[in-house]
Fold Protein-arginine kinase.
Amino acid sequence: MNLEKFLNKAVSSWMSAEGPDSDIILSSRIRLARNFRNYKFPTLFSNEEAREIINQLKEIHSDLFDSYGVMEFLEVEDLKTLQKRVLVEKHLISPRLAENASHGAVILSENEDISIMVNEEDHIRIQCLFPGLQINEALKRANEIDDLLEEKIDYAFDENLGYLTSCPTNVGTGLRASVMVHLPALILTRQMNRIIPAINQLGLVVRGMYGEGSEALGNIFQISNQITLGKSEEDIVGDLTSVVQQIIAQERSAREALVKTSNIQLEDRVFRSYGILANSRVIETKEAAECLSDVRLGIDTGYIKHLSRNILNELMILTQPGFLQQYAGGPLRPAERDIKRAAFIRERLKLEEKDS
């Protein structure tokens, strides 16, 4: 396994599997923030300390995680700008880690469901991803990895506060649990403006598909916990799961209402978007994401029968700027990316139709 494996395949192996409620929930993610006890946090540490942390994890990672298969250790300073962008688009590293060129690293599992970021905002950030609504399963996996690391590393931990982190909002469990949701019907029925404030009042936050500061392209949102102190991991995950299950029910209800009350209009929207994707010669990221969202809704509601959900998952990532340039073999200007994006979508849809 090498870097090219992570760069050339848009859909990770775990994404190809069907998970619970996968018509609405794209993925479940657990992230644990941890730090070494005797080192300054990444916001203050020296390059020498950063190097020591990388070397320690590099030395132990292959034996420590052998039960999870081959785990690749990649140092950020060895990656090109475009390679880092592709890893960000695949949610394998964060934008912040991509910027830490001189002292960052990541440990990746072969099927990309495990990502351990080194020297991001904290010394260690364990990330586990599962398809559909499987937050408890992701938490179990993350805790297994955390236990393995804790056998080798003396964590920064306080008996009263819990795990100590760079950002005070992560102190305590150090846990961020999140789900990636596709909510086109709640957007079309204009209910999201009411739902988001209600979610925030419950101690959760709604963001775009690439986290804080990102736009909710293609009606895809991340919902995650804000509180990490004063609650157990089980309570945090339980509260998030309860809210997400309510959102699933509301999205399904909105879809049923659209099919019942606006059937021809919804069908027209779905097939217009499909026509744009199948025939456009120039298409921007935002328009492509909106059309892909409509087509996926068409698949889930039964209007489109010859495409799978996986093709939409794949195209959501393949049409991002980094991936387009990776396939083109080098940098592209925005106008060139829009042409390449349209051509790639047309070709991929034709290939899917031949196989159906």
The two ends are 31 Å apart (CA to CA). The chain is about 50% helix and 15% strand. The chain has a mean pLDDT of 90.
